[in-house]
DNA sequence: AAGCAAAGGTCTTCCGCCATACCTTATGGC
DNA sequence: GCCATAAGGTATGGCGGAAGACCTTTGCTT
């Protein structure tokens, strides 16, 4: 083994060998539940899965999950209701709520890393979808998701936007890609929560969405990729501008 | 919340809420160490990081790591040497060794998912690298990695090929992308280990590598993307052909 | 030849998390 | 109006894994 080889290998080990569990099980579970809320998969007022179910899905014990939910309750993010048809419900975000936690999370995000990774996933998903030529039912889901962003009240725009992109990721046909995108998008949403929502950007975004969906449905991979790249570049520029 | 909305959310929760720890810490650590070996980051005869160091990097205790290493020793994959300048060394693969484990791992891989995800990452990395216009030192690393695949003995080709692609991923400037690619590539290598290595494919692969690197160094994003997509499609077709 | 340093090998203590069972509350159906 | 049911709330015992100190081996350095 040459010297260069050894050097390369050493550097790479550092990149590949990552902690097998980021923090303890509790923290990871907390991140996941927060992710579900940040992605808007459970909207304000909606109910999270029952504790037993959720714990099972996350692969943790109910005791640990309840630790997580306790924290979320204390932060005023969710509310537990007892009795049949009870559950854990997502509360409307009380502005300041979680502000500290948010700022802390955002502080140690590598923004360039995130934006690049996100772009790669999104552009790739768009291209795959276009190349597949989405079948009727799937094309319908995409159109539906797009339409929902159009008649969205301002307060729900981010959520429906997220859902549109998530739909595209799903339709790419790679569950791994979907999961990775979900994680990346949750982090992007954290960043977006730190900057103002400008109506002008929103309109621009709408046009790009429309062009993107059309390209995908036309099976025009080139155009789909270009549209998505432009769309991502827009968000990226916005975030870099406000946060850099 | 409309019915459709609820339905979507339910389906998506299943995709996003994944077990917080796939198996126990031991199994995850085993996967990671195997990954390092499968990627060829530590070549045959090479030494893994010291136990204390490795355990620290993986975020597990030394006791647990030693469980992992014990298994690898029993499988004849590594050898422990005591004393100063001792360590855990990777043994030459004794053909049958790990064959069972390999077949088991391969059996429950979603091949389409993996190949799609891999293509997205690779194509994205190539495009990012081309768009960045690699600086001198970084361009040098890429050229170096390419040259190493050219004068590779057949037995070491897979490893150097992996290292070339890994270099490209690194140069994309997104650590997350690098890490994800490493994981995906380790799984791809598992699949490749199940099929014969054809010299004809290898030559073809070489030409594609050369074209790819040239495009990247030229800063021609279009060409880089096209070259990489073709390259991935080649491997994918090969794997689908042999394993489908 | 002595000894120091760096590695693997061993042991003990303690905490976190899991599994399980059971209690309490609220609602809709009979 | 009762009560079955589905949800959250509580308590207990057991085990896996983390932390850290220590022992043993070996080879280079002086």
Automatic annotation (TrEMBL), chains A, B:
Top-level taxon of origin: Bacteria
Domain HTH gntR-type: 23-93
Keyword annotations: DNA-binding, Transcription, Transcription regulation
InterPro entries, sorted: GntR_C, TF_FadR/GntR_C, Tscrpt_reg_HTH_GntR, WH-like_DNA-bd_sf, WH_DNA-bd_sf
SUPFAM superfamilies: GntR ligand-binding domain-like, Winged helix' DNA-binding domain
Family matches, as SMART domains: FCD (SM00895), HTH_GNTR (SM00345)
One Pfam short name: FCD
GO MF annotation, one: DNA-binding transcription factor activity
Protein name: Transcriptional regulator
Organism per entry: Streptomyces minutiscleroticus
Lineage: Bacteria, Bacillati, Actinomycetota, Actinomycetes, Kitasatosporales
């Amino acid at each position: 083994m040459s010297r260069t080889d050894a050097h390369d290998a050493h550097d790479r080990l550092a990149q590949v060998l990552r902690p097998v569990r980021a923090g303890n099980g509790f923290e990871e579970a907390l991140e996941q539940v927060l992710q579900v809320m940040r992605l808007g998969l459970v909207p304000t007022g909606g109910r999270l899965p029952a504790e037993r179910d959720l714990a099972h899905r996350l692969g943790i014990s109910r005791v640990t999950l309840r630790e997580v939910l306790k924290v979320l309750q204390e932060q005023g993010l969710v509310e537990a209701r007892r009795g049949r048809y009870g559950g854990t419900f997502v509360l409307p975000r009380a502005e300041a709520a979680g502000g500290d936690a948010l700022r802390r999370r955002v502080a140690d995000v590598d923004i360039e890393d995130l934006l690049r990774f996100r772009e790669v996933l999104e552009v790739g998903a768009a291209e795959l979808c276009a190349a597949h030529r989405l079948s009727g039912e799937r094309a319908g889901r995409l159109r539906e998701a797009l339409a929902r962003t159009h008649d969205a009240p301002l307060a729900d725009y981010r959520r429906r936007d997220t859902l549109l992109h998530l739909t595209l990721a799903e339709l790419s046909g790679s569950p791994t890609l979907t999961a990775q995108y979900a994680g990346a998008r949750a982090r992007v949403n954290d960043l977006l929560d730190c900057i103002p929502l400008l109506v002008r950007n929103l309109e621009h975004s709408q046009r790009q969405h429309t062009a993107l969906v059309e390209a995908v449905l036309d099976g025009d991979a080139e155009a789909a990729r270009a549209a998505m790249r432009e769309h991502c570049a827009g968000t990226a520029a916005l975030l870099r501008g406000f946060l850099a």
